[in-house]
Design a protein that fits this description.
binds pyridoxal-5'-phosphate; alpha/beta
Length: 341
């Protein structure tokens, strides 16, 4: 497969926005009269580094992925949108996703005028590879997989994902927003094996930085270079670049362990509640539960000031609620209320 042939013509020939600072490597001592900024220092008067060099080297060390294979976005939403804009010609090309899965794949497709073909998972939430290939045609450019999947909470079978990457005629995006909670290192360590693989990760979940908006895409140097060309030049602001670099120094292993333990605790504590029909196995920081009457249980929880996500109108999720793992105290309250319903 020649990835270059999959790229939209206008993107292949795009001349990116350039800044004069790319021509100057002398550090902070320069006299910067190139960008019409205010010269008066307040910590924020200069534009951020559009290449995020310092942050990329920190993330590279943490994730074991070379800096040249890292794209940093304003949340995962940005790489998702950029991938459509780079690979899918509006009104011509299409993308494939599993169903049910994360809602942004459809929102970004709709915004970009790209058809999204949703292929149902099997009833046990496993991949139906043959149905995915049956949905593809010669204009299928992107395939979105999500592992562990939101909202079904399960890790997808690694052999099946590998089979899809090896045989799909476009770019396969494996969204690993919840990989830190799973018993797997995911596909980031295997980037070099597949030129058509993009792995998405985020600092919004296990790393606790949802408010800072930072999403990661790992891919070949070529794909990362394309994404960097198409992004807004200053997509990651100075505060985020700096704070993320600092917060990444504090390990999260204890918190991840705690959340996984609490997830197991909730699972076993609500399994026999009278309203609960089923608690699905989870590899993430949330549980998908099937109840007798999802809207009623949802409202009953709201009345107790507990907000969960009603997924009951989503494919394969009739009467299902999605519940994030909270602090031990929050979880105790949740368990108490559910058992009292
Ligand atoms: C939460 C989540 C994300 C993260 O989105 P951000 O924009 O990085 O906050 C990405 N993918 C999935 C499947 C998610 O559930």
């Amino acid at each position: 497969m020649d990835i270059r042939k999959l790229v939209r013509e206008n993107i292949r020939s795009l001349a990116p926005y350039s800044t004069a600072r790319d021509d100057y490597q002398g550090g902070e001592l320069g006299i910067f009269l190139d960008a019409n900024e205010s010269p008066y220092q307040n910590g924020y008067n200069r534009y951020p580094d559009p290449h995020q060099r310092t942050l990329k080297s920190i993330i590279s060390a943490k994730k074991g992925v070379p800096a040249a294979n890292i794209f940093i976005g304003n949340g995962s939403d940005e790489p998702i949108d950029l991938l459509y804009r780079i690979f899918c010609e509006p009104s011509r090309d299409n993308a494939i996703s599993i169903s049910p899965s994360y809602g942004m794949y459809r929102v970004a497709a709709d915004i970009n005028g790209v058809e999204l073909r949703e292929v149902s998972l099997n009833a046990d939430f496993s991949l139906d590879c043959e149905a995915i290939f049956a949905a593809c045609d010669s204009n299928s450019r992107l395939l979105f997989l999500c592992s562990p999947n939101n909202p079904t909470a399960n890790l997808l079978d690694e052999m099946s994902v590998e089979y899809l990457i090896s045989n799909f005629g476009g770019v396969v995006v494996v969204d690993e927003a919840y990989i830190d909670f799973a018993d797997s290192c995911g596909f980031a360590p295997r980037l070099a094996e597949f030129e058509n693989l993009v792995v998405l990760q985020t600092l919004s979940k296990a790393w606790g930085m949802a408010g800072l908006r930072l999403g990661l895409a790992f891919g070949s140097e070529y794909i990362v270079e394309l994404m960097s060309r198409v992004k807004y030049p200053y997509n990651i602001n100075v505060v985020t670049q700096h704070l993320v670099g600092e917060l990444l120094q504090t390990p999260i292993d204890d918190k991840v362990t705690q959340i996984v333990e609490q997830r197991k605790r909730i699972e076993s504590s609500i399994a026999s509640a009278s309203v609960v029909r089923r608690v699905y196995p989870s590899d993430a920081n949330f549980l998908l539960i099937e109840v007798d009457d999802a809207p009623r249980v949802y409202q009953a929880l709201i009345a107790e000031r507990i907000i969960v996500r009603d997924r009951s109108r989503v494919a394969l999720c009739t009467n299902c609620l999605r519940i994030s793992v909270g602090t031990p105290e929050e979880n105790s309250r949740l368990i108490e209320i559910i058992n009292a319903l």
